[in-house]
Amino acid sequence: MDEFDVEEFIRNYECLAPKRYSYANVKKMTDNFKDKIGKGGFGTVYKGRLPDGLVVAVKVLSETKGNAEDFINEVASIGRTSHVNIVTLSGFCYERRDKRALIYEFMHNGSLDNFIHKQGSETANCRLEWKTLSEIAVGIARGLEYLHRGCNTRILHLDIKPQNILLDKNFCPKIADFGLAKLCKTKESIVSMMGTRGTAGYIAPEVFSRNFGGVSHKSDVYSYGMLVLEMVGARKNLDSGVSHTSEMFPHYIYKDLELDNDENVFGAITEEEKEIARKMVLISLWCIQTNPSDRPSMSKVVEMLEGPLHSLQIAPKPFLFSPTIPAAQGSMTASQQSEIEDISGN
Predict the structure, then answer these.
(1) Is 59 assigned to a binding site?
(2) Which Gene3D superfamilies match (predicted)?
(3) Superfamily of domain 3-105
(4) Catalytic: which of 70, 159, 177, 262?
(5) What is the pLDDT of residue 263?
(6) Per-domain residue ranges for the chain?
(7) CB atoms within 10 A of CB 190
(8) How far is CA 195 from CA 146, 150, 159, 185, in A?
(9) pTM for the complete prediction?
(10) What is the pLDDT of residues 300-311, one digit of tens each?
């Protein structure tokens, strides 16, 4: 996408786009890029302040191939949204390819990634309480439900991971970074997509191989399931510092669930904490089913999160992760098939 295309887009979607700032404005609001608060593959994030005093995070994009499309994706996607669990885009800057910035509301607690398995970091000992983790999981689910159903245009995020979930001062989660997002008509379920988008460990099977089905809102559901399992701590064997001699994820989770061995997987202490952890894991295992049609919608996920634990069954083992499991062990029961049809709406 060249400079002319970007300018044409901005003119066509001016009513949807947030306020446009000059690069001189960006330098002024960041005090000449004085306070760097983060750095990623797409650029550097600085703390800034708008003329009205609002504290913001300013993401200055690096000049790399393909970033113009990512930039437009972000402006187009977030410009259409208004939800408590979606980060607010306060403005943007575009002056040629080398002077582009996105201006967001500032999130005091940074990303969720800071509170998950971060050994040696300042937040390593700031393990969130189970009630807070549950509220964050519900908030993310509501944000995704809104993207999939609440907008005039359905938005597929396609890069849900801890780094893209921001937390405000009250730990209310906000979905951020829409650089890889895809827009599609609400009635469409499958989107056309070239190549693979997303981050290893969170990408749905159908995103990297169409043999598993088409890319749809159910691809976000998969990523959400992997994210919540990481929040619970159930993905411990994906940590490079953990031995891989034991059973691989997610099979040890099923084993512990079946044995009611909650504390082994979750680290929960009280009965209330164990119930929260168990519910989060059970729902996540439904979300990471290999067949997209077997996964629940985000509306159903919200319903399950807010419903009673006793109504949830253990999902069948995803066959993508079961190459060595005998067919009989990996097959599902009639009750599980019935549960799939109920959860997925099929």
Answers:
(1) yes
(2) Phosphorylase Kinase, domain 1, Transferase(Phosphotransferase) domain 1
(3) Phosphorylase Kinase; domain 1 (3.30.200.20)
(4) 159
(5) 58
(6) 3-105, 112-344
(7) 14
(8) 26, 27, 14, 21
(9) 0.82
(10) 999 999 999 999
